Amino acid sequence: MTKEIEINPDLDLVLERVIDVPRELVWKAWTDVEQLKRWFVPKPWSVADCRIDIRPGGEFTTVMRSPEGEEFPSSGCFLEVVENERLVFTSALLPGFRPTPKVSGDHELPFTAFILLEPEGVGTRYRAILIHGDPQSKKTHEDMGFESGWGAALDQMVEMISSEQ
Amino acid sequence: MTKEIEINPDLDLVLERVIDVPRELVWKAWTDVEQLKRWFVPKPWSVADCRIDIRPGGEFTTVMRSPEGEEFPSSGCFLEVVENERLVFTSALLPGFRPTPKVSGDHELPFTAFILLEPEGVGTRYRAILIHGDPQSKKTHEDMGFESGWGAALDQMVEMISSEQ
Predict the structure, then answer these.
(1) Each residue of B65-92: pLDDT tens digit?
(2) Is residue B112 part of a domain?
(3) B11 touches chain A (CB under 8 A)
(4) Which of A121, B73, B105, B144 is most exposed by smallest CB count within 10 Å?
(5) What is the ipTM of this complex?
(6) Does A83 reside within a domain?
């Protein structure tokens, strides 16, 4: 397992929040295709398709759909899977650890995401840490609305879990 | 663990050979810093420095030195570590799974390497599979002399192991 993550403010984005749902259900929301589809992108966007093969090197693909019906696929693979605790995936490698093809244009955005779950009372300390290789990639992610986007998605997740309990 | 690797001839390079040394010693040659320094690059080049942190996300850095004394560092991280059997590392992610910074120029070469060891008689079926994201990266690796280079290095490894038995 990777060691404790050293945050580099020039390269990394962090969303940390204590949420009122147990981490086992957060884990399920992240790793069950049908659940993920319901919360992963802020409405009125939606998830048109999703593939999750939950092991190192396994596929993690999501296809986001805009309100106008345009679809934006993004693919990557998992790197570390520690149930209920730690999910790591990257966009820099495709399934089977194949490097993502070099493409020209701005939509290429290599990052690695750590989803870290710790019990906190009856809830969960939720941390999403996104690390990048250069300041430009971090800025692109920030400008795409990381904080509001991942925050709104997390709200949807908590609402989904709460409504089922 | 990743599944059996599907080779794509347009993107991948393969070196396969049966060698006359047991796989436990091949594993040691790949994972022990002092041993790796002795065989990893074909003479008269040498390894000036090497760092191995043998776990997923752990550092794999080598610094190659030309006969003229020029040094060429390259860094990446391990992805899968199955002792005596399977070693997977990539240049697309730095230690801690951080994406390699985007740089301009030709020396950027994202690849993932699978070193696969199977017992064969008293020796080892040795496979090195290098996968790339696009045909250009494969070609660059090929033009750098993958086959002769990795072959000559493997000869040096077998010679080192044999001389110690």
Answers:
(1) 999 999 999 999 999 999 999 999 999 9
(2) yes
(3) yes
(4) B105
(5) 0.93
(6) yes
